[in-house]
Amino acid sequence: MPLPLFAAPTETALPLHVVDQPGLAAWRETQPDAILAWLDGLGFTGALGQAVPLPGDGGAPCGAVVGYGSREARGRARFHLAAAAAKLPKATYKIASGLPQDQAEVEALGWLLAGYRFERYKTQTPMPATLIAPDGVDANAVAAIATGEALTRDLINTPASDMGPDDLEQAARDLAARHSAKIAVTMADALLAENFPMIHTVGRAANRAPRLIDMRWGDAGPRITLVGKGVCFDTGGLNLKPGASMGLMKKDMGGAAAVLGLAHMIMASGLPVQLRVLIPAVENAVSGNAFRPGDILTSRKGLTVEINNTDAEGRLVLADALTFAQEEDPDLIISMATLTGAARVAVGPDLAPYYCDDATFVTRLETAATQQADPVWRMPFHAPYETMIEPGIADLDNAPKGGFAGSITAALFLRRFVDQTAYAHFDIYGWQPSDAPARPKGGVGQATRALLKTIAEMSAQ
User: Where is the Cytosol aminopeptidase domain (predicted)?
Assistant: First the structure.
């Protein structure tokens, strides 16, 4: 998880000027002729992502200027300072001018996230430029978010050969130890004895035993329960995925990775909440005892589920975990899962679609998402589609035929296991398909920063 954090203040830090295109002319009036000639020679226009070191005496850089573009250009992207940070020469920089105060925290976070490298299997070239936390920015709070996001990325990027249910459990145990949290794990046949039948059924065909991870932290404040889908690899089961669809299935535990990253942010920030994290950790494998299409399972809640596709397994393991979460009647339940391809068809990889009927939560989350450059998109629990998940011979159908509204029907399925309004479900992708500022190709957290701020507001009441 190599992640350069903020540099300590130093007198040798180079000043970094942030210049947008509307303000370029005014800024140029403050610069000497030699600097202007240098910038003109390099074609500096203040465009978003431009980065130019400024020459000092003897040829060594005496500072740098980065382009902040126009309002329109910034509206089409995120983490604008990060786009330039990777282009700067090795040095420690301090913001000298031009960065709007209301954007300082997000841009500073973007700089840190741009320095993320996944190095478990190969040494990567580090980002040379480091940043002193801008004035007015809580460096520790931003660092907590960055390290939580790095944890999420590391977990998703690790292949299933090294990130099975046992490895995911160990990652949770390491996090619990770091923050003095309590953790309990129910696994293998104990899942049947403790009434988690669908978690056991989905995971029983794999060599590595299925389990339910239960982590707790905090003893005061609102009771927040995070439930993350931990399918460490998804072959599709007996409804075997084609090879092209199986290639990224190491990321099918992205929901678990996201809630662990969010849990770190909450605990490292010291939020006054009673946090619980539930992760059903399984592999959806193929063997002689794999569950079959046509099987009817009885869930922890007592609802029966007809299996019409073994590749719709995530909602099954989440159902038992959500029922378990509901039994303590928390103030808020949040589930996060790489649940449906339909969500990606609807909104693409950049947005985190979510479902929630709690108006207060929705308002807080939407505001936080904008402030944190962590976009979300509300989807409907559309009640008329309830009949689509009712097969007739069982209470529920895990994979309605027809292909319509796949993300909505999955969310409706999950809602059957939660008996409260204060429930939010996030159908995330968990993967950055190509390099972008502060988001290299690979595993990525979605909605966690927006959720952190939302939960912080809840805890402050």
Answer: 309-316
Closest listed residue to residue 427, CA positions, set 370, 369, 352, 368? 352
Give strand pairing partners of 437.
Answer: none
What HEC string does 422-459 produce? CEEEEECCCEECCCECCECCEECCCCHHHHHHHHHHHH
Contact, 218 vs 301, CB < 8 A? no
What kind and span of H or E run contains 16?
strand 14-19
Residue type, 318: L
Q: Name the residue among 180, 177, 16, 210 with its Cα closest to residue 98.
A: 16
The catalytically annotated residue of 74, 173, 223, 241 is 241
Closest CA to 105 of 138, 83, 77, 128: 138
- Residue tagged active-site, from 301, 315, 344, 453: 315
pTM: 0.97
Angle at alpha carbon of residue 289, lines to 285 and 293, rounded to 5°: 75
Q: Domains in the chain and their CATH numbers?
A: 14-137 (3.40.220.10), 143-459 (3.40.630.10)
Tens digit of pLDDT for each residue in 46-100?
999 999 999 988 888 999 999 999 999 999 999 999 999 989 999 999 999 999 9
Q: Which whole-number Å values give the CA distances from 348 to 208, 263, 344, 382, 398, in the listed order?
A: 33, 26, 4, 21, 23
